[in-house]
Amino acid sequence: MSSSPEMSWLSVFPIVAIISLVAGVGILVYLRFFYVDLPPIEGIPEVPNGELLAGHFYKLGSDHATTAETWAQKYGWPVFQVRMGKRRAVILNSFDSAREWTVKNQSATLDRPWFYTFHGIISATSGRELAGLFLMSDSAATIGTSPWDERTKKQRRVVGSFTTGPSMRDMRPMLDLETCAMVSAIYYDSAKGDVELSPHIYQKRLALNLMTMFCYGTRFASIKDPLLGQILSDANTIASFRSTKANPQDFIPHLRYMGGNARNQTAMEVRKRRDTWLSTMLENIRGNLPMNLGSKKMNVAEMLLTDSQEGLTQMDIKTILGGLMSGGFETIFSTVIITIGMLSTPAGQAMQQKAYDDIMSVYESPEEAFEQCLNEEKSPYIAGLVKEALRFYPPLKLLPARQTYKEFIYQGAVIPKGLLLYVNAQAANRDKSVYGPDAEEFHPERWLEGGADVPPPYHFAFGAGARMCTAVNFSNRMLYAIFLRLIVAFKIEASKTMPANTHYINYKEDAAASNAVASDFRIRLTPRDKQTLEKCFERSEELSEGATSSQYSEPLKR
Ligand code: HEM
Ligand SMILES: *[C@@H]1O[C@H](CO)[C@@H](O)[C@H](O)[C@H]1NC(C)=O
Ligand SMILES: *[C@@H]1O[C@H](CO)[C@@H](O)[C@H](O)[C@H]1NC(C)=O
Ligand SMILES: *[C@@H]1O[C@H](CO)[C@@H](O)[C@H](O)[C@H]1NC(C)=O
């Protein structure tokens, strides 16, 4: 007779038990000592209740910046550590800590992490050419996410050289053309103020044109251009895949091997399409090069393609241009659109009046203001409005991840090399100990009165220190010119039926997107003086002649 099932189970039980025990202990030891990249940092509090594998990744919810801000308040910890899957990370939620780490200790915090999603694609497709395509199309591989090395330094130098004062002077006709085209399109499309409109598309086209002109010397002459629509919708989709939240496999390794988390088909398709239009723009430049050689280089692509001095590879060029396009377009657009929303509110009416009075006190006439705003930032109120917009509505709430480059000491705690680091700009920019009790209010005047007390970088919308945005001055000038031209041209009021949501968290269309875009709204624009405004347009048209070839020009509507 064979033994009963119970018998044989009993006989193998000790072996199974021992094997499971050893395996269990092994897994526990692995998770405890080897899974996480760095041991807990002594002296920096850790948010409780991290999950075994995911750590705090899913606890951060869909809006990471807001959750982190809530934790900082709940526990009273401006600086805390969490676990993003297998990576230990520190999140900085106060102005002083962000400044201490990224400015005072900038040499120790200037690296960026290198994420799996990016590596995974390269190794999966191999082949240099394909890698190049993805590099260009995947923002995870653009300059804003590159580790600190010679290539990154070179790229920062090149981009920086295009956003200096003299370069901005050279670009003046182009900047004039774009900002005027935005105001005039709104003016005529609203039937000179008779009909309400949604300002989004005008600001999107403006921001995109600024970047395509800056990078490739091309632009979209109409908001109805189908390619413009395609690019904008693709950019939107890409943004939804870019946030930390959309990429758990970067932090939780076992997800990489589970089918559901393979690269999303939609993302792949959109990125391919984007490659095509970015390549087309680059090829157009290359095709025109012999003609343009010798003349002044007016855009980044031209300079990169002809300048052998910096010794850039083809890959560098694609990386720089892809990074610029995504880095510049969405940030400028989202800052402008929510500020227009804020100006249109009842509280915004007083701001517009103060702004207009201030403009008129520093410029001789509306015409002069309209013309000069591209050359210097003379109105303190408008400059304050720019700072306040970036403080209160930073387009990137949790800044692009950094990584420590060497060990340093922060308030007695030893901060190791290789640590993942996030600055929570949403929280740091509303730090009451720096901005005062009214930190939760949108108040441009703060930069006129006591504002001088806030030390640089004034707010963290551009980051800070050695990896700060390379286009700070350029962006500030653009925002200044855009706000000034709008305020000189119009009184802006909210639509009765579709006013803007201006709450600092709830205004976003998609809380999980890496870039904060305001939900749709409508406004009513009343021209301050139609004749003066039309004169401004004509003058601007004269001054921006030659900014672009006839192929891309935009005759003024009348
Ligand atoms: C309102 C407009 C903008 C905002 C709020 C903004 C914000 C930022 C932020 C937060 C970073 C990361 C900084 C850090 O880690 O400390 C960054 C990096 C960068 N930005 Fe901007 N940006 C803006 C416009 C632009 C424009 C127009 C360009 C190009 C013309 C640009 C080019 C770059 C580049 C190249 C980097 C990467 C720097 C590096 O990693 O070394 N940005 N930006
Ligand atoms: C970090 O900042 C502190 C305070 O400013 C300074 O004493 C220290 O030398 C810095 N360390 C590094 C590595 O930058
Ligand atoms: C990819 O993601 C998009 C947007 O999140 C979703 O609508 C779509 O169903 C996903 N597709 C696949 C194949 O997972
Ligand atoms: C911006 O302008 C200021 C003052 O003119 C200058 O000190 C600074 O270096 C500029 N920053 C960049 C990133 O070009």
Automatic annotation (TrEMBL):
One of its GO terms (molecular function) is iron ion binding. Heme binds at C469. Signal peptide: none annotated. InterPro entries: Cyt_P450, Cyt_P450_E_grp-I, Cyt_P450_sf, Cytochrome_P450_fung. Residues 537-558 are annotated as: Disordered. Keywords: Heme, Iron, Membrane, Metal-binding, Oxidoreductase, Transmembrane, Transmembrane helix. Pfam families: p450 (PF00067). Residues 546-558 have a biased composition (Polar residues). Belongs to the cytochrome P450 family. This is Cytochrome P450. It comes from Knufia peltigerae.
